[in-house]
């Protein structure tokens, strides 16, 4: 995923405007630990355990952690490798009660929520879970979903392992989730993981072939709110960066700030492209129909040619979940006209 979970549809915008975060403390209960699809070892290893996270922080524990509490994205990633957390924080369900895309394949049965909104962290629920390890991600220096004002309290309950996502292409992020999962007892070479990795690589090669067959095709990755139009910087967003590595000619904004260039709607036609990936998150911003009501965007080449598809920015970085993103992107590229920009 790229920029998942921000209250303003993007960590770049969150960082840029310095959005405030709040912390709540509520009562809670314990979750349960059950096997997950990736064939994790059911028995904890004896002896000392250590893991160095992407901050360079070495975590040392007397034995392998078995009670994991994780933010939605790493919870989904760990689950696909075979580690089911006892608790999760961050988005879990959409407004209509369906599983959030951010939670991926994770079965929430027996998993305790310790907060859902950005900045919300229910410390008493966390304490009740007696976690051995807390896992989250980072976008640059921002530790995702654990507010600065509560982090010291959280770290007294259990150490925090952080996986960096800013500017990290999908395969590299998946590898790091795999490294952590293996350290937690999962088998990164299980038959299920081998098959998922093969499917992912097959989809990546299919996208490469589709791009090669459409020389000159330009692609813009965008988002919008009522106030502003945003053009994504591929060097910031790990999913977009990976699409670029696979050959897509991604339009790079001239003045990005923390992941996006922010423009007025009158300037929405500044960066022209044959194909547009448009932020598909249902909450906090405009959908395709709403964006198309703004004249400058309505008259852009890709919109006029009906070459606008979803940017699935909430997809967790796992082989199982991101394969569909690659497949859908390949289909869009294959269908697109590479000459709609004059």
Explain the overall architecture.
Keywords: Signal, Transport. The protein is an alpha/beta fold and 342 residues long. It has two domains: 11-187, Nitrogenase molybdenum iron protein domain (Rossmann fold); 195-335, Nitrogenase molybdenum iron protein domain (Rossmann fold). Helices cover 31% and strands 17% of the residues. It is built from eleven helices and 14 strands. The strands form three sheets. Strands 3, 4, 5, 6, 7 and 8 form a six-stranded mixed β-sheet that branches. Strands 9, 10, 11, 12, 13 and 14 form a six-stranded mixed β-sheet that branches. A two-stranded antiparallel sheet has the order 1-2. The longest helix is centred in the middle third of the chain and has 22 residues, at 191-212. The chain is globular, with a radius of gyration of 20 Å. It starts with 10 loop residues before the first helix and ends in a 7-residue tail after the last helix. Mean pLDDT is 88; it is low at 3-43.
């Amino acid at each position: 995923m790229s920029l998942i979970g921000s209250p303003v549809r993007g960590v770049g915008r969150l960082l840029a405007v310095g959005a405030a975060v709040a912390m709540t403390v509520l009562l809670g209960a314990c979750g349960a630990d059950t096997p997950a699809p990736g064939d994790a070892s059911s028995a904890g290893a004896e002896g000392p355990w250590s893991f160095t996270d992407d901050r360079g922080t070495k975590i040392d524990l007397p034995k392998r952690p078995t009670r994991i509490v994780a933010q939605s994205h790493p919870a989904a990633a760990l689950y696909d490798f075979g580690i089911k957390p006892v608790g999760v924080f961050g988005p879990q369900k959409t407004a209509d009660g369906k599983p959030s895309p951010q939670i991926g394949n994770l079965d929430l049965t027996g998993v305790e929520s310790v907060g859902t909104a950005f900045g919300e962290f229910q410390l008493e629920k966390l304490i009740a879970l007696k976690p051995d390890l807390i896992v989250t991600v980072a976008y640059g220096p921002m530790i995702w979903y654990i507010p600065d004002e509560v982090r010291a309290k959280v770290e007294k309950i259990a150490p925090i392992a952080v996986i960096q996502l800013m500017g990290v292409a999908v395969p590299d992020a998946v590898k790091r989730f795999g490294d952590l999962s293996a350290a937690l007892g999962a088998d990164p070479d299980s038959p299920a993981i081998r098959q998922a990795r093969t499917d992912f690589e097959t989809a990546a090669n299919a996208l490469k072939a589709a791009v090669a067959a459409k020389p000159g095709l330009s692609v813009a990755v965008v988002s919008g709110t009522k106030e502003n139009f945003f053009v994504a910087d591929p060097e910031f967003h790990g999913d977009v960066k990976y699409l670029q590595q696979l050959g897509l000619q991604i339009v790079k904004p001239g003045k990005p700030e923390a992941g996006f260039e922010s423009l007025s709607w009158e300037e929405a036609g500044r960066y022209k492209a044959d194909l547009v990936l448009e932020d598909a998150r249902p909450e906090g911003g405009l959908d395709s129909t709403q964006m198309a009501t703004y004249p400058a965007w309505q008259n852009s080449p890709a919109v006029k040619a009906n070459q606008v598809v979803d940017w699935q920015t909430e997809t967790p970085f796992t082989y199982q979940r991101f394969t569909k993103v690659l497949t859908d992107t390949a289909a869009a590229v294959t269908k697109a006209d590479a000459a709609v920009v004059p």
